[in-house]
Amino acid sequence: MDILRVILTILIPPLGVFLTVGIGLHFWLNIVLTIFGYIPGLVHGIWIIATKRADHPAA
């Protein structure tokens, strides 16, 4: 499932964040970062997926 989230994050960064944490602070922050530039949104999205996976390894 993480591979799918990473692929979706590469295509549309807010979508990958939404699938990982839902609608919340990180989702809205990612939208703002993506508006400012694709790369900041992408980096934030990958960071969210990586840290949430480390927090919940069974998920």
Q: How is this structure best described in words?
A:
The chain is built from 4 helices and no strands. It is mostly helical and 59 residues long. It has one domain. Helix 1 runs antiparallel to helix 2, helix 1 packs antiparallel against helix 4 and helix 2 packs antiparallel against helix 3. It is globular, with a radius of gyration of 10 Å. The model has no long low-confidence stretch (mean pLDDT 89).
In terms of structural class, how would the helical and strand content be classed? mainly alpha
Portion in strands: under 5%
Measure the end-to-end span: 9 Å
Q: Based on DSSP secondary structure assignment, what is the total number of beta strands?
A: 0
* Spatial extent as radius of gyration: 10 Å
Order of helices and strands: HHHH
Largest beta-sheet details: none
Number of helices: 4
- Describe the global form: globular
Integer count of domains: 1
- Outline the low-pLDDT stretches: none
**Chain-averaged pLDDT:** 89
Helical fraction: over 70%
